[in-house]
Design a protein that fits this description.
By secondary structure, the chain is α+β, with helices and mostly antiparallel strands. Helix content is 41%, strand content 15%. Strands 1-2-3-4 form a four-stranded antiparallel β-sheet.
Length: 216
Amino acid sequence: MEQGLIIEQFDELRALYSGLTLQKTDGVWDIQGLLVFIANFAEQLIEDKYSILLLIPESYPECVPVAYETGNRIPRYFHKYKEGSLCLGEPLAVWKTFSEQPTLLGFVQKNLVPYLYSYSYLCQNGKLPFGELSHGELGRIEYYQDLFNVRSEHSLFGLISILAQGEYRGHIQCPCGSKKRLRYCHGPQVLEIMRFAPPGYFKVLYQFMSQRGMPI
């Protein structure tokens, strides 16, 4: 991680979000302060503010920042990990969104603000604007069922197996049940995902689905 890159990207971020500060403590860069935003993602304009903390990993921008809400406004049950960081979505989806604009400003505007908007919307309307995934691996199953447009968990397991093993063979029959060769069906999607995520990324999901009775 280059110091110049962090400072340059933070200056861009602070130009729009002046309540944020950048500091380096024990070799770790972090951004904290009051994030004030105006957003309209679900045909409802919302203006709100949250106290936030962003920890910038050493591997940035190959890895996304870790976000926390520090004002104790968002309860633990609302899409947070056990250690308290915000679950901004399925990790691969978060990374793919970030990779479209891999800057601190891009992360805040495309990943963090939509999350905060969702909670503000929930408080005002009693429901979420975008729908909601289950927590943990069940949520990942739902995400990939939607991404691959397969309803059968058995079919999804076949695709996840390919990703977890890291072995793409385009001539085999696609696990989705279409009876097409993989390269003519879900193959392009599988290859695109392989570009973003190594096989190890899918190991936990693969094991979780195996334990749910999927054939190994």
